[in-house]
């Protein structure tokens, strides 16, 4: 397996990219990893490498603008910030990387982006981990609870995001707790998804209930739609229940 870190330039922005290639790729497919609301390449830990090893499919991890080693954000987020990432930015990045029909694996915000992208663009499959398609009371409660510990969280984020960490955290909580976001909903936007979809979530996710899972599976019309619901695992079941999640995702991809 070879791991290469690089940058690509696009629309006056520098994006940090990690390429992971198995020794003997089984196909020309590419898995694209989309991180969460406070995430970065290293915060995925060993998860992407494990999926590449198990599937023998190459992968790309993308850091969005305002995260990690990518360029700082230049605008405040609005209620359509995930739509912009999915429908404007991601297509351009994938075109730059010559990726036509990706296998998308997204966590939290990354999962929402994956679903939105798949609703408008050719996609081989979508694996959504703890994604949101609407705002719940539990979502708001989880964010407010996290705010209680911001003085502990922000210094930890500096390790991954440098001087972008404080703005990143503040923008995340600001938009989700704003009046403009109360009625935010992706159900209609993702209803056109036709590719296979696997939805992963824990019953004890601190930012959402299983209504998110049901909402995704009820609105999409693709024939191959599956779910993995775990009793425990919090908002990051791919870490806390790594073996089960990795096995399920691997089987899903290899049986496409």
Short note summarizing the structure:
With 256 residues, the chain is α/β, with parallel strands linked by helices.
What topology emerges from the helices and strands here?
Layout lengths: L1 E9 L2 E9 L8 E5 L12 H9 L2 E5 L18 H16 L6 E5 L1 H12 L4 E5 L7 H11 L2 H12 L3 H12 L10 H4 L6 E6 L8 H9 L5 E6 L6 H4 L1 H13 L2
Oligomer: single chain
- Total count of domains: 1
Structural class: alpha/beta
Strand-residue proportion: 15-25%
Please state the CA-atom Rg, rounded to the nearest Å. Answer: 17 Å
* Spatial separation of the terminal alpha carbons: 23 Å
CATH topology: Rossmann fold
Name the helicity range: 25-40%
What is the mean predicted local confidence, pLDDT?
A: 97
Which CATH architecture is right? 3-Layer(aba) Sandwich
Describe the sheet with the most strands: 8 strands, mixed
What do you see in this structure?
This protein is α/β, with parallel strands linked by helices. The chain has a single domain, classed as Alpha/Beta hydrolase fold, catalytic domain (Rossmann fold, 3-Layer(aba) Sandwich). The chain is 40% helix and 20% strand. The chain has helices spanning 47-55, 81-96, 109-120, 137-147, 150-161, 165-176, 187-190, 211-219, 237-240, 242-254, and strands at residues 2-10, 13-21, 30-34, 58-62, 103-107, 125-129, 197-202, 225-230. It has an eight-stranded mixed beta sheet with strand order 1-2-4-3-5-6-7-8, sandwiched between helices. The longest helix has 16 residues, at 81-96. The mean pLDDT is 97.
Keyword list:
Rossmann fold; eight-stranded mixed sheet; 8 strands; 20% strand; globular
